[in-house]
Amino acid sequence: MKTMTCRQLGGACDEVFQAETFEQMAQLSKQHGMAMFQQQDPAHMKVMAEMSTLMQQPGAMQSYMDEKRKQFDALPDDEH
What we know:
Blueprint: E1 2-5, E2 16-19, H1 22-39, H2 42-55, H3 60-74
Antiparallel strand pairs: 1-2
């Protein structure tokens, strides 16, 4: 199990997520992002606008996800 924050995943707050795999971590982040979008949270809306711009650049989103995966993989497992 590894721990990352919304901010570490490219978001706008310090909400904590825990997951066994990067795919699970990405899903938790996505769910959080959708909740923040529904609430129209200003800080998260700003980050989402920046992500939208990034997604328009060919290959940029894949590079972004690859970098976040590397960060996840480099984290030590949580202590029990």
